[in-house]
Design a protein that fits this description.
Elements: H1 4-14, H2 21-33, H3 35-52, E1 54-55, E2 62-63, H4 69-72, E3 77-84, H5 87-96, E4 101-105, H6 124-132, E5 137-141, H7 146-159, E6 165-168, H8 184-192
Parallel strand pairs: 3-4, 3-5, 5-6
Antiparallel strand pairs: 1-2
Amino acid sequence: MGGPEIERLVALLAKLPGFGPRSARRAALKLLQQPELRMLPLAVALAEAARATKACGECGNLDSRDPCSICADLHRDRHLVCVVEQVGDLWALERAHVHRGLYHVLGGTLSALAGQRPEDLSLHPLLARLEAGGVTEVILALGATVDGATTAHWLTDRLKSFDVAITRVGQGVPMGGALDVLDDGTLAAALRTRRAV
């Protein structure tokens, strides 16, 4: 194929989500065919993002400012805080335009298998927000996994002493989903989270 520089580029691209060795080679080839149009601007953007990006001290989002643009937005509903596992979950909710409140990124879930303990999660900024007052509802938007359910239960116990409503996102049948192809857990969650029509 190419020299060690190209091999290193392919190896680094292959570490990205959704990339394997073949797709990394295709991406590297595309970048190398027009380096001044594709590769050099990408290298500059990567370097600038690496220098400027930091975690928000209030919610844990990644942004070039602290507090992040979401926390600094005065038009957001400051009574609602949506708790998510990772920054990618926050970005997904923002992309869908379904939440106009604030967020809190835990940085993971409790997991005995992965060795993720309560002290490994980012909880103190959330507790500080609740102690400061003004928050009326905490929405737990955690994954529909055993670790997500365990973390939601643990968080509910930790937040009971605050005068806030604690809710969890509904789970169940996806849009366009057929019942006969869903697993038992999804069907059970769909029935448990049913609502009046």
